[in-house]
Amino acid sequence: MTRQELINELNKKGIPQDMYTFDEEYPHDKFVLFFNNKQWNVYYCEKGIKFDEKSFLSEKHAYSYLLSLL
């Protein structure tokens, strides 16, 4: 799965784009998929605090996991 394919799937599910981000590490009240130069991290961020963070070595696995959360 590519990033665009993930976005397309989230759009099909009716998930608003303001519920997730790929570019902000500490957004307010969003699901995050963030690459930190070693691995892909997926978590929910609220008021600068990360919740339920999972790390993946594969970009595809991180995308699939985020899709399953949303």
Written description of the protein model:
This protein has 70 residues and is an alpha+beta fold. It has one domain. The chain contains 2 helices and 4 strands; from the N terminus they run H-E-E-E-E-H. It has helices at residues 3-12, 59-69; strands spanning 20-21, 30-35, 40-46, 49-56. The protein has a 4-stranded mixed sheet. 16% of the residues are buried. The model has no long low-confidence stretch (mean pLDDT 95).
Strand/helix succession: HEEEEH
Figure out the total of helices.
2
What's the mean pLDDT score?
A: 95
How far apart, in Å, are the first and last alpha carbons? Answer: 16 Å
Number of domains: 1
Structural class, judged by helices and strands?
alpha+beta
Radius of gyration: 11 Å
Could you describe the largest sheet, including whether it forms a barrel? 4 strands, mixed
Helix proportion:
25-40%
Beta content comes to 25-35%
The general outline is globular
Low-pLDDT residue spans: none
Order of strands, main sheet, comes to: 1-2-3-4
Number of strands: 4
Task: Kindly list the characteristics that best describe this protein.
single chain; 30% helix; 4-stranded mixed sheet; alpha+beta; 2 helices; globular; 70 residues; 33% strand
